[in-house]
Amino acid sequence: MERNYADILQLVRGLVLDAQEAETGVDEETEAKTEFIVREESGEALSPRVLGRVEDALQRADLSNMVRRQFVCALIGEAAPQPLFSELFISIQDLRETLMPGVNLTRSRWLFQHLTETLDRRVLAMLSKSTDRSITGEISVNLNISTLLSPEFMAFDDAVIAAMRGSIVIELQKVDIFADLNDYMFARDFAKERGYRICIDGLTHETLAFVDREKLGADMVKMIWNPGIIDDVGPKRAKRLIKKAGASKVIFCRCDEEAAVEFGQEIGVNMFQGRFIENLIAEESRRREMEMARRRTQKLDLLDEDEGEVE
Fold first, then answer.
1. Could you tell me which of 210, 206, 201 has the C-alpha nearest to residue 273?
2. What is the mean pLDDT of each run of 10 residues along the chain (311 residues)?
3. How far apart are CA 209 and CA 19, in angstroms?
4. Fewest CB atoms within 10 A around its CB: which of 26, 188, 210, 237?
């Protein structure tokens, strides 16, 4: 700050101008995304009054059918994806359509953050009571730091078998962490002492360089895949970023295309999450089912041949 104040000031002013332009319209390059943006921003803005209605509705709603899961998988070369754990989360789109179809839940960032704290408590309560191994096995849950220090988490912790805590990953958002580092460190120490693993979520190729995973005491970090990383950063610099964070500790998330896996493997990443990975898992599952069906058919054919010989 002392040496580069003028540069920082110019950068901030540029960001403000970019934000103002984004509010007033989009250029030709982003015209294709306009329809999606309008659709996402439609509906009544989330206000304190509306938030109160949503939270009241959440107390009565059955969230079990809104829970989604997405696997984090190891991908080594051309081998089939090996699931490591699955992230459990509430589908915000389903939540909106079910409880408040006319409300945009994500438009107000900080009110939405408050809403996620309510969702955290409901998810923890649901997990505490669940006996479904597909939910209570190797999983990750995205929590707020305030939730991690809440009575609801203590109740969840009491319900978890001690041996199972090591299979649970707690994902914390970078914004939440740096909002109060003291709270984060206290929550981190508590969670790790209990046996949970910590993952820093929400990083990009621009912010990863400023986050020291080891100093923050996190077991892993998630970096959001963006095709722009190929041109903006390039393989060599990206490889240095990944190496600094610990290649075996970095997860590429939101991988919706094959290019994400190809580039990730090129720079040393071997853990991936996203729609493309889910498709690979589905394809591998279909392949195994077909192989099992083929083996069953062969076995039946052999039995028929044996019976014919006996006769």
1. 201
2. 81 80 51 41 73 83 85 91 92 82 78 87 83 68 92 90 87 92 94 95 91 94 92 89 93 94 95 95 89 80 63 55
3. 23
4. 210
